[in-house]
Amino acid sequence: MKIPFTLRLVYYGFRAAVRAGLLFLCAWFLLIPATAQEVTALGAKDGTTYPAGLRMMRSARIVVAVAPPRAYELIAMALPQDISPFMVQIAMVQMAAGNVLPASMREDSALASEFESDRDIDGPRFIKVD
To answer: How confident is residue 113, by pLDDT bands cut at 50, 70 and 90?
Structure first.
C-alpha cells in the first residue's frame, strides 16, 4: 500500500519546516551576535558582540517562551537541592531578562565603579571609621 501523494507532501513539508525552524533556532543561539538591547540587559560595554551570559540569556528566553508550567516542576525535581518550581520559574524569567551574571562581574555596573578609587595612593589603604 502506498500513501497518497497529498499526505506525503504534507508530511515532508511539515518535516522540512520543523527542521528549518530548529536550524534557525540553533543559528540564533550560537552564531548571531547580540543586539543592542541584549548588550544593555547584560551590562556589557557598547560594541560587544558576544557578551558573557548571552547564551544563558537566550536559552532562558527559549524556556520561558515555549515551556509549559510542568517543565518548571521537572527542572525543580532534577535539581539536587529542595527548590520549588516557582523559584525555578522566577530564576528563568530573571535570566531571560538579562540578570545572568552577578552585579560585581558586570562591566558597566555601578557596584564595580563603587569600589574603584579616584585617588592614586602608593602603599596600603586604610579604612577610616567615624
So the answer is: very low
pTM of the model: 0.68
Phi first, then psi: give them for residue 104, nearest 5 degrees.
-70, -20
Q: How many angstroms separate the CA atoms of 108 and 6, rounded?
A: 57
**Which residue shows C-alpha cell 538591547?**
37
Contacts of residue 30, defined as CB under 8 A and 6 or more positions apart, other chains included, come to: 55
Q: Report yes or no: 55 and 42 within 8 Å, Cβ to Cβ.
A: no
**HEC letters along the chain:** CCCCHHHHHHHHHHHHHHHHHHHHHHHHHHCCCCCHHHHHHHCCCCCCCCCCCHHHHHHHHHHHHHCCHHHHHHHHHHCCCCCCHHHHHHHHHHHHHCCCCCHHHCCCCHHHHHCCCCCCCCCCCCCCCC
Rounded CA-CA distance 14/3 in Å is: 16
pLDDT, residue 99, reads: 83
Q: How confident is the model over 14-22, as a mean pLDDT? A: 97
